[in-house]
Amino acid sequence: xxxxxxxxxxxxxxxxxxxxxxxxxxxxxxxxxxxxxxxxxxxxxxxxxxxxxxxxxxxxxxxxxxxxxxxxxxxxxxxxxxxxxxxxxxxxxxxxxxxxxxxxxxxxxxxxxxxxxxxxxxxxxxxxxxxxxxxxxxxxxxxxxxxxxxxxxxxxxxxxxxxxxxxxxxxxxxxxxxxxxxxxxxxxxxxxxxxxxxxxxxxxxxxxxxxxxxxxxxxxxxxxxxxxxxxxxxxxxxxxxxxxxxxxxxxxxxxxxxxxxxxxxxxxxxxxxxxxxxxxxxxxxxxxxxxxxxxxxxxxxxxxxxxxxxx
Length: 311
Fold this sequence. Notes:
The chain is an alpha/beta fold and 311 residues long. It has 2 domains: 8-130 and 290-304, Aspartate/ornithine carbamoyltransferase (Rossmann fold); 133-286, Rossmann fold, CATH 3.40.50. The chain is 43% helix and 14% strand. It is built from 13 helices and 9 strands. It has helices at residues 13-32, 54-65, 75-78, 86-96, 107-116, 131-145, 161-170, 189-198, 209-213, 233-239, 247-250, 273-276, 283-304, and strands at 43-48, 69-73, 99-103, 121-125, 152-156, 176-180, 202-206, 218-221, 258-261. It has a 5-stranded parallel sheet with strand order 7-6-5-8-9. The protein has a 4-stranded parallel sheet with strand order 2-1-3-4, sandwiched between helices. The longest helix is centred in the C-terminal third of the chain and has 22 residues, at 283-304. The mean pLDDT is 96.
């Protein structure tokens, strides 16, 4: 029975913690030079409608470490949903490969791909959410603060796909999530409502970043202008004036607060370079953990499908 990872809510609380455990073990084993060829001779098609550094390198390297091989299919190779239907692409790849990882614009395309694929599909990002990023983020918080439950995570910026995934996580594991965003940049209303209705986490949407940052365990940001929003760049720069993570804003958080950013960073816009490179920053731990968290997700999906993997 194949299983997909399209949103954080595809995993239960227990499965998320098990994913963290596996990720930490895999990370330690990589550093110790220990190999795990759980997917020897298996192949993964990596379907990219959006380019990426971390998603491509982390999945491709992770697959090699598992003894398999990953194939990069870039935006010009497939033109998903244009040159050929998502349904047909999904079925064809399933005949060739053991895994599909897709990084797409439209979330509907991700859902359609998973519907017709006969192999596991992993969501490497859509305009709606970014579940692999949040698994890496929460793994990083777990490593540095020893817990995720009860942590105050303050997202400064746009209520975008990463923000939606933080809300999805809040539906499964209790923590305190605050979005500080200007008017007009709130997260998906249905996702926000579902997270609040779950009744597990304290969730706030506020307009004052300084008030939001007070006693924060984590300050998190993302670019103000994402791929596909270039025409809005100047308006966004104006609207987000005052929402930068800098030394002044960081001073309102806890002294051991973590500074996080999913990258790429636009220095001088959403974050200053001195803060991203400063002692509170775990940005590159976070980036590294993309690979370890994603490998752990693959192990979880394979185990759900009946694979006898012990780790």
